[in-house]
Amino acid sequence: MSQIILEAKQINKYFEDPVRIKVLSDINFSINKGDFVSLTGKSGCGKSTLLYVLSTMDTAYEGEVFIDQEIMPKSNESFLAKIRNEKIGFVFQFHYLLNEFNVLENVMLPGQKLAKYSKEEIEHRAYEKLKILDIEKLAFKKANQISGGEKQRVAIARALINDPHIIMGDEPTGNLDKKNSDKVFEIFTKLVSELNQTLLIVTHDESFAERTNRIIKMEDGKIIS
Ligand SMILES: Nc1ncnc2c1ncn2[C@@H]1O[C@H](COP(=O)(O)OP(=O)(O)OP(=O)(O)O)[C@@H](O)[C@H]1O
Ligand SMILES: [Mg+2]
């Protein structure tokens, strides 16, 4: 039987804006280990809102989120911060690398925050992640001295540093040209096939979504297929 990594049970969410608007409606699904899932739908349908809920960054919702079969509390921010750092790797449209640090140091940061391994081990692990992404030659370059496509690959290496249960991305290729988008897609595919990594990626890019193993399509806050 496959192992469930992420599960959403009966999620509903409202914004008060200034009147109460329902933005997520009866969301139910689960993602198994090794799944490569894309989350698609028109602008404003609730994709980012759902990703914030699933990643525990937003706790103002009805329903239940399970990560690695464990129910996520709706308070206890320090516990949730630890879950995020340990179990979820994030890749956003913008990479949020720190320019004053080199590539290797940027990849190491979430590892140092987790403090599970020594600095030497984290450095070794960071270097291994750079190798998986074929960018180990950039290790000692400052983050502002590399290209946009390379930055996004560094951001993926950083997302991998703590061996997360799932990688969540919000338009990770949104800021990239076709060539670099394809490269990122290729890397995601490799993570799934070689490391059995689990991925949930929000994307507008239909050609990207069509190549993933499963498409979750949203409309007006609901999952339609
Ligand atoms: N903080 C907020 N307060 C009130 N309404 C919000 C807030 N954030 C988002 N919304 C609304 O909730 C709906 C869903 O927004 P969301 O950002 O999840 O859409 P999306 O599918 O990610 O869109 P896009 O593809 O453009 O990124 C939209 O109607 C948006 O205007
Ligand atoms: Mg969005």
Describe the structure.
The protein has 225 residues and is an alpha/beta fold. The chain has one domain (33-59, 75-223): Rossmann fold, CATH 3.40.50. The chain contains seven helices and ten strands. It has helices at 47-54, 77-87, 103-114, 119-132, 148-160, 178-195, 206-210, and strands at residues 4-16, 20-32, 36-40, 62-67, 70-71, 88-92, 166-170, 199-202, 214-219, 222-223. Strands 6-7-8-3-9-10 form a six-stranded mixed β-sheet. The longest helix has 18 residues, at 178-195. 40% of the residues are buried. The model has no long low-confidence stretch (mean pLDDT 95). Bound molecules: adenosine-5'-triphosphate (ATP) and magnesium ion (MG). Residues 15, 17, 23, 41, 43-49 line the site of adenosine-5'-triphosphate. Magnesium ion binds next to helix 1.
In a few lines, what is going on in this structure?
The protein is built from 7 helices and 10 strands.
Bound small molecules, deduplicated: adenosine-5'-triphosphate, magnesium ion
Instruction: Give me the Rg, rounded.
Output: 17 Å
Please give the CATH class. Answer: Alpha Beta
Structural class: alpha/beta
How far is the first residue's CA from the last residue's CA?
23 Å
Instruction: Find the count of extended strands (DSSP E, 2+ residues).
Output: 10
> What is the total domain count?
1
The name of the CATH topology is: Rossmann fold
Identify the CATH homologous superfamily: P-loop containing nucleotide triphosphate hydrolases
Task: Give the percentage of residues in beta strands.
Answer: 25-35%
How many DSSP helices? Answer: 7
Largest sheet at a glance? 6 strands, mixed
List the uncertain runs. Answer: none
**What string, H for helix and E for strand, traces the elements in order?**
EEEHEEHEHHHEHEHEE
Average pLDDT confidence is: 95
